[in-house]
What does this fold into?
Amino acid sequence: MPLSLGQGSGDFRETSGRIQAFHVGIRNTVGLLAPDAFTQPNPLITTAGTISTTLAGIAQLGVLGGSVAFTRPDAGNGYIGGPAGSPYTGRRPLGIFINDAVRNAFENIPGVASGHGPYFCGLGTYGVSIWETEDLTGGATLTYAVGDLLYASLNGLLTNKGPAADSDNLVEGATATLLGVVKVAPDADNSLLVFDLRI
It folds into this structure.
């Protein structure tokens, strides 16, 4: 019997449908969004055969709900954003963005108005509808299983290509921070990658 990931009384569903919270940690709003948090393309790595199928149909610029929030010392003290622009010196993952930075037309756009981009941190259990489905260096298809460790890819998405397997896929390279552990793998019955956040 497939696991039901339907919305329950304790669930939070982002309007974009890219993140769902099952057990919430901290909703953090400390830090201003770096300027490119509103303009980065999705994905950043566009080599043929490496583009995640979970990004199909997403043409929106800026950081996305369900993507990884990073420290951005290159933009200034206290700034956060995606991984856009190398070198990645000083970029460390903080959590998972709750909202798209620019949202959609005719919606309330708090990120643009306030300059803040809230993100989940401090543990919790979440499901995202965007993650890496391809190896960014070779184009091999990635599969996920319960217990897989998750890290931040060069696109700012979750990936199970860890530092031991291929550090060239990761913002932090061989010193990658563990972001989570897969709790429910995406499959034909479950459209979300569900994980326990470890940061």
